[in-house]
Structure formats: C-alpha cells, structure tokens
Amino acid sequence: MSEESVSQQGGAGARPQGLLQQMEELMAALNADLSALDADLQSAGGAGRPNGEERPDS
Q1: Alpha-carbon gap, residue 51 to 56, rounded angstroms
Q2: Alpha-carbon distance 23 to 29, whole Å?
Q3: What's the rounded Cα separation, in Å, for the pair 36 and 44?
Q4: Using CB atoms within 10 A of its CB, is residue 26 exposed (0-12), middle (13-18) or buried (19+)?
Q5: How is 2-54 classified by DSSP, letter by letter?
Q6: What predicted TM-score, i.e. pTM, was given to this entire model?
Q7: Which residues of 45-58 are buried (b: 16+ CB within 10 A; e: fewer)?
Q8: Could you report the per-residue pLDDT of 17-42, keeping only the tens digit for each?
Q9: Longest dimension (CA), the chain
Q10: CB 48 within 8 A of CB 40
Q11: Residue 1: DSSP 8-state
Q12: What are the backbone angles phi and psi of residue 28, rounded to the nearest 5°?
C-alpha cells in the first residue's frame, strides 16, 4: 500500500504509520551516508584525527 493511499483513507492509524515509514527511510539514508563517510575516512588512513583518537598500527 502506498503512502498516498494510506493518507487518503484517513483514520487514526494512517498518519503515524506514514511518519514511521518516513523515519525508517531517513535513518536508512543516514546510515548509508555515515557508512560512505567512514569508508572515505578509512581510505584516507585516518588523516585529520584529533590527538588521542589515533589507532595503533599493530
């Protein structure tokens, strides 16, 4: 069932379900962005890390 059809039906349960779906989609997109950022930072060798957050090479 699409979001449009849920919102057209009305009722008490329609709006929260749509919001929940939107939140899940936003969280999935955020996770993907953070994973890509982490991969970029890992490939940069940790350059730009503040002191105290460096990982040992061994």
Answers
A1: 12
A2: 10
A3: 12
A4: exposed
A5: -HHHHHHH-STTHHHHHHHHHHHHHHHHHHHHHHHHHHHHHHTTTTTPPTT-P
A6: 0.49
A7: eeeeeeeeeeeeee
A8: 799 999 999 999 999 999 999 999 99
A9: 60
A10: no
A11: -
A12: -65, -40
Could you tell me if 3 and 18 are in contact, meaning their C-beta atoms sit under 8 angstroms apart? yes
CA distances from 16 to 2, 8, 27 (A): 14, 14, 16
Place of tokens 């779906």: 21
At position 47, the amino acid (one-letter code) is: A
The one-letter amino acid at 54: E
Q: Residue 42: its pLDDT value, please?
A: 93
Which token pair is 37? 């950022």
d(CA 23, CA 8): 20
